Amino acid sequence: MSLTDNQLKVTELFDARLAVAAGAGSGKTHTLQHRVLNAFAENVIDDIEQVLAITFTDAAAAELKSRIRGMLRTTPPFDVQALGVDRAWISTIHGMCVRVLREHALELNIDPFFAQVPEEEKARLYNEAHDAVIGCLPTELDDAINAISFKTDDMVKSLVEIMEASPLGKDAVQVLRFPPAEQLLSEADKRLREARVYNPSWEPEEVQAAHERIKSAIDAGDVTDLQAAELILGIPYYERLNTLMNNRFKEHDADKEAFYDAYDSILEIVLQARLNLSRIHLNTIIELAGLIFDEYQSRKRRLGYVKFKEKKNNKGPPTGGCLRK
User: Fold this and answer.
1) Which of the listed ranges 36-45, 180-189, 195-204, 299-308 does the model predict with the highest average pLDDT?
2) Which of 33, 160, 232, 249 qualifies as a cystine partner to 273, CB 3.0-4.6 A?
3) CA angle centred on 95, ends 89 and 100, rounded to 5°
4) Bigger pLDDT: 151 or 256?
5) What would the pLDDT profile of 240-261 be if each residue is shown by its tens digit?
6) Segment 289-319, tens digit of pLDDT
């Protein structure tokens, strides 16, 4: 099969960067094999191992190797290079990465006989890692997980997948920070006291009970972020607090502006506590995902596995290739 004018340009240009857009059935593989042959003919390369051609699937890589081997065999003096086609860097991106890792296994401190994790094995290993971690959680983390009212399994699994896909590992998912428990409780206590100063008879029974619990926690000390958030959320939320405030204000002449400032601050603290509770739950999920990630990686290493997301079908972007000298 002859080459079109554009295909011929692709096979002959070696002194500049080249990008080619080509659709299905346009002769990409045919053009690439001629480009490799011309690279030998023009002394751009002198060994087949200098060729780097990355394809989307294993099947496409095998087809390209086969065609290049066949063309070299029938084109002296390059026929000797046909014997080394299997050594050429013609593979999927994952195949290339596997080869690099194996060739530098000792430097990287990994098992050179590692294997890629089969999809069915991946699910089994993850489930085993999950169950092992859940079965021996520290008490504090176990309590924090039990305090979460929604289902977390899918979220934890997604976080583990993010950690596994990133070169940063666990650091790819950052723990959220928020004001310390003592600071939030002290601010709530301060604002509740101010509201009562500006309107001594305002503090309704519901608010007073919540305030007493907050003061007791401050006196006792050593309050966790979760406990602090739950204590502050014991203060009636916006609609109920607003109703209580309005009902009292109709009966008492007070410094309205100062009272409203303190009241608004109480609402902000309650909202902050709600936000903190969400962050606490998310941090708990992140911590759990990190433990499962560590256990999952440990189990893979013991079995000599390394994971790449290899695409197994033949559908995908057009085959691409370049030359490595």
Assistant:
1) 36-45
2) 232
3) 70
4) 151
5) 555 555 555 544 555 567 767 7
6) 999 999 999 998 888 776 554 334 434 433 3
Residue of 192 and 240 predicted with greater confidence? 192
Residue with more model confidence, 282 or 267: 282
Token pair, residue 93, equals 């991106």
The residues that bridge with 116 in the sheet, in sequence order, are: 306
| Cβ burial 54-91 (10 Å sphere, 16+ → b, else e) | bbbbbebbebbbebbbebbeeeeebeebbeebeebbbb
Helix/strand/coil for 90: strand
What architecture does CATH give domain 5-106+314-323?
Answer: 3-Layer(aba) Sandwich (3.40)
d(CA 300, CA 4): 50
Report d(CA 193, CA 214) in Å as an integer. Answer: 12
The one-letter code for the residue type at 151 is K
Cα separation, 260 vs 98, in Å, equals 66
Report residue 52: phi and psi, to 5°.
Answer: -120, 115
What residue ranges do the domains of the chain occupy? 5-106+314-323, 115-303
Of 141, 155, 173, 161, which Cα lies nearest the Cα of 284? 141
Decide: 306 and 115 in contact? Cβ < 8 Å: yes
Instruction: For residue 322, list its beta bridge partners.
Output: 52
